[in-house]
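Sharing a chain and its predicted structure for anyone who wants a worked example. Both blocks are below, sequence first, tokens second.
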Amino acid sequence: MKLLELFNRLTGVIGLLLGLVLVLMSLMLFELLLPDSAVTQFMHPIQIGFSLLLLGLGLWVMKLKRELELVSQAETAVLNKKIASKTTDLQSVTQQMHDLIEVSPDLVWVKDVNGIYLSCNLPFEQYMATPRELIVGKTDFDLSTPEHAEHYRANDRQAIAARKPLATEEWHTPAQGGKPSLFEIIKTPVWDAAGNLTGVQGIGRDITLRRAAENALKKTEDQRRMLELCIAKLSEVVVITQVLPFEVPHPRIVFVNDAFERMTGYSRSEVLGKSPSLLRGPLTQLSELERINQALSQWQPVHAELIYYKKNGEHSWSEIDIAQVVGDIGWFRISVQHDISERKLAESSMLELLERAQESSRLKSAFLSGISHEMRTPMNAVIGLGQLLQDTELTSQQSMFVNHIVNSAQDYMQVIEKALDFSIIDSGHMGIEKRAFALRVVVQSLESQIAPKAQAKKLALCCSVDPVVPEELLGDERRLRQCLQILLDNAVKFTAAGRIDLVVSAVTADAETQASLRFEVRDTGIGLTDSVRERLFYPFVQGDGSMTRQYGGIGLGLVIWRNLVTLMHGRMGVLSTPGQGSTFWFELPQKAA
């Protein structure tokens, strides 16, 4: 500012000085033209004055010039100091930029227009595994394979031609070998101060891991979308509820599939963010909800059947399975459910039918029990009177008739007893007693009872008990006797010739089974085919229709035998060959008295 002020003052003085010089020159010219005039004589003092003034002005100008030079030197020194400070700052910034480039994880390099490396940073040097001094002055054809070098050079030319930064992705493999890496490359043309293009600068960032992560994320997202699509199209209803973190003061629905909309009538937008309680109503079982919450509070999966309400107010049954999962984004409950209203309706109908059937069975059992008692009373009278007649004097014909009457009455009594036992077993009221009894006495009694029937058909009857069997056992003597009598009666009935054996043996206990008694009734009768054996234990069914006509019976004996063995915690079976006889066996737990 001071320099400018001095300059302005100097300019004014010089202008004034020039004006005086012009006036003085005008006077001198006038004197030359009129040398002898009076005016000329008068001008000499003026000329002297002007000369002195010019001399003073000249000296003042010289002083002013000197001041101007001093001021100029001072301000030049200040300017030079500022320039030096700015230069230092610029050098510092340049060094910082250089250091920043050096420590940057990105690869940085500069090439000239011919592709010759001018500089590079430390990461580039380390990646190439080549000292920097061996990189500068080389081209990509010296440092990489020809194919890669040509590709890099083409990208350089493209950036130069575009005259703006160009972003590309390149796979780089150092010439020294190593695993290829994917780099994100930004190539920028470089100009000098005059605006001349001098080369291209490159910045490369290794994105191999990032791209792998992106690909993995994309794959995961694709799988998630596919899973969501599959779940959305399932016929089963899927509901996902977020429990924590709370965004509202209750669990909220975050996902439902298409089946949910079809089953409930609610659209997805109507339920998202809402509580699942919107599906509950007056008939929803509170006890079942409490059980569900209790199981979920203990992190247990739960299965339940609930009454839910649709959007139109109708209620239906739903079978639901709920499980819980916890992830980084919260705590969720996943429920899969389907409508079981039709099944519940069918179950209700079946339950009603079952109740009716049970009532019918109860009435049938009561009827059979009542009529059996009513029938046994007169039949006992018939048998008793017949036996009394047998003890009187009768002709041979009368005796034969009486014997037929007694035998037929006794057979009829057995039919009545079987019908009564079957009705009791079928009603579930059959009980098993546990009392001490002598097994050998039971066997001898049965032998004496069956022997007349066997002798009438000229069949040999042999009953034997293994000596190791205890003398007294604990069990139901009556039901055991009934089982053996059923098998012996059948053996006599279906055996035309040969023999019948009743064998009682002890079965040794092992690690898996307990000691038991095995009862076998063997005969040499007609035997059984596979098809007959399959129908053998159906009530009121015999092998075929001809058996009923030929041998009689109502097909309940073996059914009663099987059920009695089961009630006594035993097991049973049949071994048979058509035309060669059969062996019916059963085993009961051995319990000595």
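Comments welcome. The radius of gyration is 62 Å.
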